[in-house]
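Re: the 151-residue chain
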Amino acid sequence: VTTVETSTVERNPAMAPGETLVLGRYAYRFDDIQRTEGPNYEAERATITVLRDGVPTAVLTPERRFYWVQRQTLTEAGIANRWNKDLFAALSGQLGEGRWSVRAQMRPLINYIWFGAGLMALGGILAASDRRYRARATASAPQSTAQAEPA
């Protein structure tokens, strides 16, 4: 967890469609934004293409949703999972003049947290199955110590 937190790269710029943000070897290109409607919400959905060394590797679609019944606005992140990192983008809000607040993150080694939790669970199962740690049930009946005396 410490390695993930210290090696995470995050930026929160104001971007307009057509602009690009560079994070290490990755570039987040804000392609467009469109209005869409779901079953109980309306949303602004951005299309962000992630490029690595100029080659597209993922398309993220973060959303900013307004739910009618709850009268609440929530953000849905766009996440691309890789074996060694997660690429993340969230659409925070419109800033005016066609610019949006976009949060972009690259979180290396995030999947190893799940691997570590699985490894700990496996260790717990192996420890629980060890006979030395189980309670021993004594099934032997009490023995009578009184012996019959000779006549």
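The two ends are 80 Å apart (CA to CA).
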